[in-house]
Write a structure and sequence with these properties.
alpha+beta, Yope Regulator, Chain: A, eight-stranded antiparallel β-sheet, 4 helices, disordered N terminus
């Protein structure tokens, strides 16, 4: 086996072990950060922090979540901020629209589009030691980005 091939296999093996594995959730730290920013939330049935952003000027609301479980990746603790933007079938997200979303993700400075089940989400993977102000800012970015996409895809509907 050549050195290059051995190194490639070693790198692949390392990546396999570095995949996201759930770690113990630091729920109290998330709650403290949300509380310190005056953000109202509830903890949903699977332990995620659920917030509703109100865009009163537009007469809209937007759900946004902070994952209740952190994950370890490459020695870092990561938590997700995510906001639903569309229902795949209902909002006509097909292959070409998915490619558009992927291309759009390349232009994002923070976050990307992900499909989970029948829902399109805007997701920001954040270091779990983000400050309260940083976390609050990411929640705002996720909610606004997802709501803008929901308007684009579904028109006047405000389902998410």
């Amino acid at each position: 086996m050549t050195t290059r091939r051995f190194l490639s296999l070693s790198v692949l093996a390392g990546l396999a072990f570095a995949t996201a594995a759930p770690a113990a959730a630091e729920d109290a730290s998330v709650a403290r950060r949300l509380d310190s920013e005056g953000l109202k939330y509830e903890v949903d049935s699977d332990g995620d922090y659920k917030l509703t952003f109100n865009y009163s000027k537009e007469g809209r609301t937007q759900l946004v979540f902070v994952s209740g479980t952190a994950q370890e990746v490459g020695g870092m603790t990561i938590r997700e901020v995510f906001s639903p933007a569309a229902r795949i079938e209902k909002d006509g997200i097909d292959g070409s629209k998915a490619l558009e979303l992927m291309a759009g993700s390349a232009q994002m400075k923070l976050g990307s589009w992900e499909i989970r089940g029948d829902v399109l989400y805007f997701v920001i993977k954040v270091l779990d030691n983000a400050t309260a102000k940083e976390l609050s800012g990411m929640l705002d970015i996720a909610a606004e980005t997802a709501d803008d996409k929901e308007i684009e895809l579904s028109g006047d509907r405000d389902d998410l």
